[in-house]
Amino acid sequence: MRHALTAVALSAATLVTAACAGSEDPSPPPTPEAALSTAGATSLPDETERTTTQPSPDESTSTSLGDGPPELPPEATEQTYAGATAAFAHFIDTYNYSVQGPTSGLLPQLTVPSCAVCVEWEEKVVALEADGDRYTSEILSIDSFAPSMVDETVSGTVTLSEMYPEVVSADGSVLLESSEPQTFKRQVELVYIQGSWIVQAVLTLDS
């Protein structure tokens, strides 16, 4: 089996064991993870958005490769629950675009350097690019995301579906057959830095 398949085959087992460290925060630094449990929740003028920000199945949309990378929606720059939800949906759309190109270098623009899962996903894209392989369609979609806010950090449980599409080589040969989708949950953290939401962590939920 080629190197790409061992480096890029996204599995639930890999995601279960991955966690994000916070050792190299950008400047200005994001709120430490400890603040998630000790700081009081910020009261926002649009507090009612907390009950309405779960994205519909269409919120994380398929992007035509011919259209270029997904564009950041204006709403994703707003320091609100809806803004953070839109920013995470954009992150997933960008990952889906990256593995289908494949196109490296896009995910690091949307994440902090210390996000281990984010780094791992980018490494998979780089491996695909090096081998000339690609996924034939999107691999992740958001089923629901229920965020809460503490200071300038948003965290919440996200339910994701992993589609397991075919992986093909540059000549179209099928390297990895498609399989049945699976659903899993993760704890997601985003931090608001310089006018936009950045993915800070994708964490395994405590059992």
Question: What does this protein structure show overall?
Answer:
- The structure is a single chain.
- The chain is of the alpha+beta class.
- The strands form two sheets. Strands 2-3-6-7 form a four-stranded antiparallel sheet. Strands 1-4-5 form a three-stranded antiparallel sheet, with no helix packed on it.
- Strand 4 and strand 5 form a beta hairpin.
Radius of gyration: 17 Å
- Per DSSP, the total helix count is 5
Order of helices and strands: HHHHHEEEEEEE
Overall helicity: 25-40%
> Any low-confidence stretches, pLDDT <50, length ≥5?
1-62
Strand order of the largest sheet: 2-3-6-7
Task: Choose one word for the global shape.
Answer: globular
Our measurement of the CA-to-CA distance between the termini, rounded to an integer number of angstroms, reads 34 Å
Determine the strand fraction and express it as a percent band: 15-25%
Return the structural class: alpha+beta
Count of distinct strands = 7
The average pLDDT score comes to: 77
- Summarize the biggest pleated sheet: 4 strands, antiparallel
Task: State the main characteristics.
about 210 residues, alpha+beta, four-stranded antiparallel sheet, about 25% helix, globular, three-stranded antiparallel sheet
